[in-house]
Structures are given as C-alpha cells and as structure tokens.
Amino acid sequence: MIGIFEGLMLTTGLAANAVGPNDKGNKSFVGSKKAVTDPEILSLFPKSKKLFDPCILEFDIQIDADTLVFNYVFASEEFPEYLTYHDVFGFFISGKGIADAKDIKLSPEAFGRLSTELDLPDAVLTELKNISEKPYINRRGYVGVFRQKFGKKAGEFLKAIDPYIVDIKNLAVLPNGEEVSVANINHKKNAHLYRPNTLEKDPKVFKAWQYDGFSVPLQAKVQVTPNETYHLIMAIADQKDASLDSAIFISGTGINGKKK
Ligand SMILES: [Ca+2]
Ligand SMILES: [Ca+2]
Hints:
Blueprint: E1 7-11, H1 39-44, E2 51-62, E3 67-76, E4 88-94, H2 108-117, H3 122-133, H4 139-150, H5 154-161, E5 169-170, E6 180-181, E7 194-196, H6 203-208, E8 213-215, E9 218-223, E10 229-239, E11 246-251, E12 256-258
Antiparallel strand pairs: 1-11, 2-10, 3-8, 3-9, 3-11, 3-12, 4-5, 4-6, 4-10, 7-8
C-alpha cells in the first residue's frame, strides 16, 4: 500500500504506534526528554542540533555484485503541520571506493603511524586509541570528541590527524543533496515525493497506518567493489523535541546487490 511489502521498520517511537487507523494527529512515544549528546550520533546530522529518540542500526555488508540498491519510505506524525520539526533519516555507507569517503575508521595501522610519526601529547594519543577501538566514527564525530576533551587545542590536534580521517556518505538524500526529513519532503516542498495519509486519498492506507504522511518509495544506490566489506548505518531521529513519531520502512528486498 505504501510501496514497501515487507522489510524492516525503524522508528523514533513504538512500532505499535504505526498501526492504523490514522485516528490521531500526534501519536507519540517519548523515550527521553533529554537531547542526544553523543557526538558520534550528532555528527551524522550536522544540521540538526537537537535530536531525540534516535534509532540506529549498524552492520557490515559484503556483496557479490557491483551495485548496492535500497528502497525505503519515510513516514511521520509531524506531517502536515509541524514542518519545522525536522525529524530526519540517514543511510550512511563507508568503505572502499565510496566517493567522498576515504575511511571513517581510524585503523590500528593509522593509529600506529600517528603515534610514531606525529609529536602528539599522550592524552591525545590515548583519545585516538579509544577512537580507534570504536567500530566506526566519522570526521564530525572526531571533531565533537576532540572539542569535548581538548577545548581550544582541539583544532590543532585535529589538523595533525586530518589526513587519517574522513566523512562518511549519506545515501538517503534528495537529488539536490538535502537530507530525507519532514522539512524537506512535504506538501509544500518536494510535494511530488509526498503522500498525505487521508481517508480521501486512500481509505486502505488510512485504515492500516497511523502516520499522517509518507514519502513515496525512494531509492538510493551506490557503486561498490564486489566482495569488499562496507559499513552501513541507518539512523532516524526526532528533532526539536521527542514527540510525534517518525519511521522508516526499508524494503526486505531493498538491499540488493545488482550483478553486472
Ligand atoms: Ca496519525
Ligand atoms: Ca518527532
């Protein structure tokens, strides 16, 4: 009905809140009223300073094909009235050959080189070692950690380690590069990508789903090197406050390696 037949749902609220009919305009589950402070999560969405109730799935994938394709639908209770509540979704990839992403992980080798080649204080090396033991963190994540730990000196240290770290790439973006969010897909902006969940529009969808609106099925794809390991992070979060759930539906057949 919404273009995804089976698959995975991530939500900033409860899965049970997705169930229709759409009899409320403000179905909410508030997990925490405290905004996210983890620099790693904040770094994924640089435009969203106050994030709440993040839901994140992270895994490695290896495919025997040269293209990774995924189909998804974004849904939210924020539609159509709270368009400045920028609930947001991202699908991040890193790995060999991904444009704009060299390596989001500070590898043990890179750490070894940093410790022998650069004259960095022990505290910085300790922090880098901590970071190198985390599964993944991106450039903005590093910046956040360093600012927290080293204050004004952070810039100096970051400059030294800059060649070793990079951004990861968000595949869930619109053609103009904007994030998939309530603010960027709605009845006023990119309206061709939006479908309201009203009785008039489609009674079946209205009965089945509580969300006030959906994106049309969106697709992202990226060239990969067959049999290389890529790291994926799917992340959705409330923004501005923890109310009014948003969700992402990812097709079970959406993550597909396409052979040549
Ligand atoms: Ca609703
Ligand atoms: Ca929300």
